[in-house]
Amino acid sequence: MNSNLEEEELNKQLELLKESHSILSSIEERRLYDWSLARMDKPGRYSWPFEADITQIPTRTPPPAAPEDEGPTRLVGYFFLAWVLLSFVVSIVLNR
User: Fold this and answer.
1) Which helix (H) or strand (E) holds 18?
2) Which long-range contacts (CB under 8 A, 24 or more apart) does 29-38 make?
3) Mapping DSSP to helix (H, G, I), strand (E, B) and coil, where does residue 70 land?
4) What are 3-25's pLDDT values in tens digits?
5) Which of 10, 12, 18, 14 is nearest to 2 (CA)?
6) Are 55 and 37 contacting, i.e. CB atoms less than 8 angstroms apart?
7) For the chain, what is the largest distance between any 2 Cα atoms, rounded to a whole number of angstroms?
8) Residues 23 and 33: beta-carbon distance below 8 Å
9) DSSP letter (8 states) at residue 68
10) Number of domains within the chain
11) Residue span of the structural domain in which 40 resides
12) Does residue 28 lie within any of the structural domains?
């Protein structure tokens, strides 16, 4: 009885090993497997299936981010501030 259980466990492990080999031996299947690992690692960030390749280690540092142009944002903020102030002034003047 005990050897029968061991044989069942060995058969299950052998099946898992065969399945792993079939997945990892195919290039496309391997990429999809790497993609699923990348999705589990960072669930909030989407990555394309063929973008994730955990076998390649990045060798270069990413380029520095371009500085953000704050001018247009500042102009829009000043425009809304002027609009609100003008509406308050016109409201006060018209209600007298």
Assistant:
1) helix 2-25
2) none
3) coil
4) 676 888 888 988 988 888 887 78
5) 10
6) no
7) 100
8) yes
9) P
10) 1
11) 1-57+71-95
12) yes
In a domain, 65, yes or no: no
Phi–psi pair at 69, nearest 5 degrees: -85, 110
Question: Which H/E stretch holds residue 56?
Answer: none
| Under 8 Å between Cβ of 36 and 53 | no
pTM for this model (two decimals)? 0.37
Tokens of 33: 């497997």
Three-state secondary structure call for residue 24: helix
- Tens digits of residue pLDDT in 45-75: 776 666 656 566 667 887 888 888 889 999 9
**Does 41 fall in a domain?**
yes
> Could you report how far apart the first and last alpha carbons of the chain are, in Å?
100
Are residues 48 and 39 in contact, defined by beta-carbon separation less than 8 angstroms?
A: no
